[in-house]
Design goal:
about 700 residues; mainly beta; Methanol Dehydrogenase, Chain A; Cytochrome Bc1 Complex, Chain D, domain 2; four-stranded antiparallel beta sheet; binds calcium ion
Length: about 700
C-alpha cells in the first residue's frame, strides 16, 4: 500500500463518544447477605476453583486454565447464548470479568464497573468513576480497562485518570479512593491491580507521553501507600535513588530524566507465594528513539525487562532485560505466566512471556536466569538470543542510524500485545494470541518533547514507505494475526491458526480440552486444544479483544466474554484497522452454556457511504504541514491517513471539516472536551489547526478519486 502519513487528531474521540452517556451510579442494591470473603489463601488456591474466577489471570500462576470439564470437544457444538448485556460505552472493551459467588463483576471503557447476576444477566449495580473526557488524550491506546482485583469484601480497580478505587463488592459503593499519579502529567491506568499479602499493587501507562514508570503498593483496607518502585532512574545528581536505580543510571546517557524515560508497568504483574516474589513487566522507553533518549546508547535498565520485587517492601531482587537499549516500543509488559517445567531432566520453576519483540522467553523465576528464547513469529530486528540471554541484533533495525524509513518486524503494535495467553498443562502448550504486523520507523529530525503529542521521536510523516516485507510462516503475506500453540520446552509451535486481521482476542483454556478465542472479525470460536481444529463458533457481530472466562454454577459450566472493538489496532493503523476486522462497533457481555438458545438482536451494518468531501482548500505547503501535525497529534486516535477504524470518527467523512469555523470550534476551542476531544491550541496555532483541516479534506479527495476509479 502507498505510504499514507500517520496522523493524530482527536476529533474523533468526540463524535464517537456521542452515544455514551456519562451516567450516574445506580442506587445501591438492597443489602445482601455477606458473600465470600477473599483471603490470601483464596488467592493462593484460585487455580483449583471451579465456580469462581477470582483474579484477572485466574490465579497467581496466571495460566488461565479452567478446571471445568462439562463442555468438551464432543459437546461444544451445542454451546449456545444464555444471556447478554449491552454496555453504555462504545470504546474498546478489554476486561476479564471476575466471578464470585454467582455474581459477575466487569470493568468497561471509561473505567466504569458493572455487577451482574451471573446466572440471569440482571444488573445488580453499576459504578461510574466519572473520568474527565479530556483524560482520553493522555494515552495512546483507547480509554480501556482490563479488570479488577478482589480481596476481603471489596473490589479494586484503577480509573483511566490514575485513581485506585476500592468498592464494596455487594453494593458498588466507594470505600476509598486514592490518586496514584501526578495528574498534571500524562499518566493513565488501564491494567488490573494485583493483590499480594494485604496490599493492592497498581502500575500505570504513559511512556509515549514523557512519564517515568513505577508501580506502587497500597494498604487494601485504608488505601495508604506502602511503597513505590520506579523502573527507570531519575536525575543521579538530585533524585536520591536507591541502589538498584543508581546501578541502572550507569546504563543511561544524556539527560533522560528530562524526557521521563518511560518504563511504565501498564499491564502484567504476578506473584509466586512460595518464593515471595512479585514479577512485573516493564514497558518501552520515552521517547522510543534511543538516540534522543540516551544519545550514547546503553542498555537503559529497566526498560523492556521483567523485574522481580519483594512485595512487602518494594525491594528489587532481580531482573531480566529482553530488549536492551529499547527503541521500537518493544514493551515487556505482556502476560507473565508461571509454570514448573521439566527442562533437560530438571524440574524448573519458570516464568514465560511472549512480549512485543516476537520472542518467547523461558526464565528461571527464582533467579532471573535466562533459559531460552525463540521467535514465535517472523522477526527482522534480531536473529536470536545468545547463551547469556542477549539478543543478536540486526544493526539495520536501529533506524536512527539510517536515512529514511526502516520497516521492522514485529513493530510497535507488538507480535503480542496485552491480550492474555492461556496454558493447557496436560497438552504442555501455551497459546499465544499473536500479531503479524511490522512498523515503519524513521528518525525524527529536530525532535523536541511536546505535551499531549505522541512523543516517540519517530517521524510518522516520512515520505514514501518502502515495500513492506510482511511475512507469515516464512512467506510474504498480509498483516494479520495468529493463534499459536507453543511448546515452551521445545520452543516451537505445535499448531497454528492464521487470521486475516491483527489484534484478536485474549485466550481461555479449559480442562475440557478446549481453547476459546474471540476474533477481530467478530467471531467467538472454540478450538481443540490438541490440534487447533475449529469445533464451534458464534457470530458476535463485532470485534472481540478481551479474554473469556469459565465458571460453574448450579451444575452448569458457563463461558463469558466481553465483545467490543477498540484499542490501538482499531484506532491508529487506519486502513489496516479494517483489514479482516469489520467496523461494526458493539460493546456487550456474552455468556454461554450448553443447549442455551438465546439470539442476539439483528446485526446492523456500519456504513459510512461514499466520500463526499467539501471543495479542496489550502496549498501544497499547508497540506504538507497538516500531514505532519496530523501524524503527531491526531492519527493515534483517528487513524493513519485520516481513515477511521470504526471506533472514533473517520474525519474524511466528518461534517465538521466542511467549514473552518466548525473545525475551529471543536479542534481549537474544544467544544467536545467532555467526550475526549480536547482543544489543541496549546500545541498548535490556529493556522496549523486549519492546515490539519486542509490535509484531511485533501485525503478525502484522494480516496474519493480511488473510489470513483473502482478501488
Ligand atoms: Ca508503548
Amino acid at each position: 500500500m502507498i505510504k499514507r502519513t500517520a496522523i493524530i487528531l482527536g476529533l474523533a474521540a468526540v463524535l464517537a463518544a456521542c452515544s455514551e452517556s456519562q451516567q450516574a451510579a445506580a442506587p445501591a442494591a438492597p443489602a445482601a447477605p455477606q458473600g465470600v470473603v477473599i483471603t490470601d489463601a483464596s488467592l493462593e488456591n484460585a487455580a483449583s476453583e471451579t465456580s469462581q474466577w477470582l483474579t484477572y489471570n485466574r490465579s497467581y500462576m496466571a495460566q488461565r486454565f479452567s478446571p471445568n470439564t462439562q463442555i468438551t470437544k464432543e459437546n461444544v457444538a451445542n454451546l449456545g447464548l444464555e444471556w447478554y448485556a449491552d454496555l453504555d460505552t462504545k470504546r474498546g472493551q478489554e476486561a476479564t470479568p471476575l466471578v464470585i459467588d454467582g455474581k459477575m463483576y466487569v470493568t468497561t471503557a471509561w473505567s466504569k464497573v458493572k455487577a451482574y447476576d451471573a446466572k440471569t444477566g440482571a444488573l445488580l449495580w453499576e459504578f461510574d468513576p466519572k473520568v474527565p473526557g479530556e483524560a482520553a488524550v493522555k494515552a495512546c491506546c483507547d480509554v480501556v480497562n482490563r479488570g479488577m482485583a478482589a480481596y476481603g469484601d471489596k473490589l479494586y480497580f484503577g480509573s483511566f485518570d490514575g485513581r485506585l478505587i476500592a468498592l464494596d463488592r455487594e453494593t458498588g459503593k466507594v470505600i476509598w479512593e486514592k490518586v496514584t499519579v501526578d495528574q498534571n502529567q500524562s499518566y493513565s491506568i488501564t491494567g488490573a491491580p494485583l493483590i499480594v499479602n494485604g496490599k493492592v499493587i497498581i502500575g500505570n501507562g504513559g511512556a509515549e507521553y514523557g512519564v517515568r514508570g513505577y508501580i506502587a503498593a497500597y494498604d487494601t483496607e485504608t488505601g495508604e501507600e506502602a511503597w513505590r518502585f520506579y523502573t527507570v532512574p531519575g536525575n543521579p545528581e538530585t533524585s536520591n535513588d536507591p541502589a538498584y536505580l543508581q546501578k541502572a543510571a550507569k546504563t543511561w546517557t544524556g539527560e533522560w530524566w528530562k524526557l521521563g524515560g518511560g518504563g511504565t508497568v501498564w499491564d502484567s504483574m504476578t506473584y509466586d507465594p512460595e518464593l515471595d516474589l512479585l514479577y512485573i513487566g516493564v514497558g518501552n522507553g520515552s521517547p522510543w528513539n534511543q538516540k534522543i533518549r540516551s544519545p550514547q546508547g546503553g542498555d537503559n535498565l529497566y526498560l523492556s525487562s521483567i523485574v522481580a520485587v519483594r512485595p512487602d517492601t518494594g525491594e528489587y531482587v532481580w531482573h531480566y532485560q529482553g530488549t536492551p537499549g529499547e527503541t521500537w516500543d518493544f514493551t515487556a509488559t505482556q502476560h507473565i505466566m508461571l509454570a514448573d517445567l521439566e527442562i533437560d531432566g530438571k524440574l524448573r520453576k519458570v516464568l514465560m512471556q511472549a512480549p512485543k519483540n516476537g520472542f518467547f522467553f523461558v526464565i528461571d523465576r527464582e533467579t532471573g536466569e535466562f533459559i531460552s528464547a525463540k521467535n514465535f513469529v517472523f522477526v527482522t530486528w534480531a536473529t536470536g538470543y545468545d547463551e547469556n540471554g542477549r539478543p543478536i541484533e540486526n544493526p539495520d533495525a536501529r533506524y536512527y542510524n539510517k536515512d529514511g524509513v526502516v520497516f521492522v518486524l514485529p513493530g510497535a503494535g507488538g507480535a503480542h500485545s496485552w491480550q492474555p495467553m492461556a496454558m493447557n498443562p496436560k497438552e504442555g502448550l501455551v497459546y499465544i494470541p499473536a500479531n503479524i504486523a511490522g512498523f515503519p520507523y524513521a528518525d525524527e529530525k529536530g525532535w523536541e518533547a511536546k505535551p499531549k503529542g505522541f512523543n516517540t521521536g519517530n517521524d510518522f510523516s516520512m515520505g514514501a514507505m518502502p515495500p513492506i516485507p510482511e511475512v507469515r510462516n516464512g512467506a510474504l503475506a498480509a498483516t494479520g494475526g495468529a493463534l499459536i500453540a507453543w511448546d515452551p520446552i521445545k520452543q516451537e509451535a505445535r499448531w497454528q491458526v492464521d487470521y486475516e486481521a491483527a489484534s484478536n482476542g485474549g485466550l481461555l483454556a479449559t480442562a475440557g480440552g478446549l481453547v476459546f478465542q474471540g476474533t477481530a472479525a467478530g467471531e467467538f470460536v472454540a478450538y481443540d486444544a490438541a490440534n487447533g481444529e475449529r469445533l464451534w463458533s458464534f457470530d458476535a457481530q463485532s470485534s472481540i479483544l478481551a479474554a473469556p472466562v469459565s465458571f460453574e454454577m448450579d451444575g452448569d459450566q458457563y463461558i463469558a466474554v466481553l465483545v467490543g472493538r477498540g484499542g490501538i489496532f482499531h484506532l491508529a493503523p487506519g486502513l489496516l484497522s479494517l483489514d479482516g476486522a469489520p467496523p461494526e462497533n458493539i460493546s456487550r457481555m456474552m455468556v454461554f452454556k450448553l443447549n442455551a438458545d438465546k439470539t442476539l438482536p439483528p446485526k446492523i451494518a456500519q456504513q459510512l457511504g461514499a466520500l463526499n468531501p467539501p471543495a479542496k482548500v489550502g496549498t501544497v505547503e499547508s497540506i504538507a504541514e497538516g500531514s505532519y501535525l496530523y501524524g503527531r497529534y491526531c492519527g493515534t486516535c483517528h487513524g493513519d491517513a485520516a481513515i477511521g477504524g470504526g471506533v472514533l470518527p473517520d474525519l474524511r467523512h466528518s461534517a465538521i471539516n466542511a467549514t473552518a469555523d466548525a473545525w475551529k470550534t471543536i479542534v481549537a476551542d474544544g467544544a467536545l472536551t467532555d467526550r475526549g476531544m480536547v482543544g489543541w491550541t496549546d500545541v498548535m496555532t490556529l493556522e496549523q489547526i486549519e492546515a490539519v483541516r486542509h490535509y484531511v479534506i485533501n485525503r478525502a479527495h484522494e480516496d474519493a478519486a480511488l473510489e470513483a476509479a473502482g478501488h
